[in-house]
Hints:
By secondary structure, this protein is an alpha+beta fold.
Amino acid sequence: MLDNKTRMKLFKRITKILSNEHVTMHETDQILNAHDAWPLSEAKIRSGEVLPLADLIVFPESVDEVSKILVIANELKLPIVPVGGGAGTCGGTLPIYGGIQLDLKRMNKIIEIDHKSMLVRVQAGVIGIDLEEEVNRLGYTTGHTPTSLRASNIGGFIATRSGGSMSSLYGKIEDLTLGLQVVLPNGSIIETKAIPRHSVGPDLRQLFIGSEGTLGIITEATMKLFPLPEDRRFRSVSFPDVHSGLEAIRKIFRVGILPSVVRLYDPEDAAFSFSMHFEFEEGHCMLLLAFDGASKKIDIDEKQAVRICLEEGGTDHGEGPSKRWWEHRYDMYYPTRLTTAGFAIGDTIDIVATYDKLESVYYAMKDAMEAEDAVVMSHFSHMYQNGGSIYMIFFTSQPDAETAWATYKKIWDAGVYACHREGGTMSHQHGVGLSRSTYTEDELGSSFGVLKKIKEVLDPNCIMNPGKLGLGVRK
Length: 475
Ligand SMILES: Cc1cc2nc3c(=O)[nH]c(=O)nc-3n(C[C@H](O)[C@H](O)[C@H](O)COP(=O)(O)OP(=O)(O)OC[C@H]3O[C@@H](n4cnc5c(N)ncnc54)[C@H](O)[C@@H]3O)c2cc1C
């Protein structure tokens, strides 16, 4: 952290750009911003540990203000940590080297809607639910409905390559974002054109999508819109094992059906999530499906999907479990319950793999994590034509903080290295942040060097979110 004199000088310079009320050095604000929804950061704070604090937290309202703040930070070689909704699960907004936390929540304007092209241009600080509800009123959906819709904003979604619950049909945020405005570490403002496709060199937009604040600050985005579906229908099928459930999913996509929701709960997660409300055989998995679109098309898709499921040994449970999940999908997350009093700690590892590897990744990770004293339950969600993700939830309960944090780390190591060994990728939607930064090199292999070079070129003073994504780690 800066000494008091330097901090006051910085405060004075920043308050020439922003009014006093939009800059804070207050300890309460610093402590609140010292963690995000990364369970380890929350658990440590609850156990009384003091986490690194930012020197200053700033709330700009315009891209020009962001640019001016970055010019100062670059000159002083001061870390800049962008903060979206602050609901990231990997410690991405933690100011581990102090510096300035730049919170985008005041940049919350919906700038323009292009009804003809079905596009909406927004500032990066718009909270997901505010945008979704506004476009719903006009007959559209963004198609992006992650469980953190109420807590995260558009910049945060884009910076972490977020995935919504209906990504099988609508796509992830990288498919939904057509254009970006970004402020680079030296303060210059760049824009990528909002166009459906192009053939003018590599797609620079994708360089910043998922960059987690390490390459620049996303200040504006142009997003796709879809007409609200005429109909949405739910269906649920249980399966005797993970294999038959996955085969059914694979075949549904293979015949060209694109359900909006596809979630296969393994026996542990199915028992936890549904056995209190529905009857199905013990030890069975539960597949939830939803279909969005024109009623007549859904009639055909739903019928064919259910036929495939039954051929794979499934038992039809009607709309019950699937509809219940939809209606209660936000309940268990607010407030977050992955940390509890005492030294029980949990987390989620959201890996992704192709169909030929999904099962082996699942069993290898589950075995490896259980061997480190974790209770594990999983669902396969965000499924696509070529594969999909596994959302592995784990818990461990230990006698004291030191053992709990050490066990937590061992479970993560065991899970991620098993995932990599079997050919999976360590994150589908949560990003890397701090929690996975030590595995980035193992994940990216020889291409990690390219990412490091890009970082060096764009951010030679390494001010942008140092230590995240495995980039800019300081001694
Ligand atoms: C209850 C709960 C449910 C969740 N459900 C989902 C889910 O269904 N799907 C999913 O994908 N994720 C989910 N998440 C994880 C999290 O919400 C997402 O990762 C989300 O995309 C983070 O957005 P945020 O605005 O909260 O970002 P923050 O936590 O504020 O930031 C995340 C990272 O992005 C950087 N960043 C933020 N804004 C910008 C910007 N404008 N420019 C550059 N960098 C920026 C930050 O520096 C940080 O590194 C969930 C989290 C919680 C707590």
